[in-house]
Design a protein that fits this description.
Blueprint lengths: L1 H11 L3 H14 L8 H18 L6 H22 L9 H26 L10
Helix pairs in contact: 1-4, 3-4, 3-5, 4-5
Length: about 130
């Protein structure tokens, strides 16, 4: 989790001009990408999964989902505050919303996994 937070911090510390130099590379990977806004979903989806990993089995409860969302949204808020001090970057409430949506999507995935596991559709261990 801390490593992924550092990655997000380093990326958000890039000035607007520096980020624009990376856009052509990502456009080859993701055709139709006009800017980095959709990357908020992906970054905070991954962050939520790393928080869940850290929580272990406690992640698979409503309290765990709330912790995951709280950590991600709070970190997203500090990230937006940090961008206020980066040249050519500004904090944006929409970015924080996208961060929260990415984290919530990961929580939904964890919930679906939990439901499938309860129904016995996901093997817990394999015997060879």
């Amino acid at each position: 989790m801390v490593v992924w937070m550092a990655v997000i911090f380093l990326l958000s510390a890039q000035s607007g001009g520096e980020l624009d130099t990376w856009l052509p590379f990502f456009r080859r990977l993701l055709p139709g990408l006009e800017d980095f806004n959709p990357m908020h979903y992906a970054a905070y989806f991954v962050l939520a999964l790393t928080v869940a990993f850290g929580l272990g089995s406690r992640a698979f409860s409503w309290k765990g989902y709330l912790w995951i969302l709280a950590v991600c949204v709070l970190y997203g808020a500090t990230d937006e505050w940090h961008q206020a001090y980066v040249p050519n970057r500004t904090p944006d409430w929409n970015d924080l919303l996208h961060d929260g949506i990415g984290a919530a999507a990961a929580c939904v995935l964890l919930l679906i996994y939990r439901l499938f596991r309860k129904q016995g559709r996901v093997p817990t261990s394999r015997k060879y």
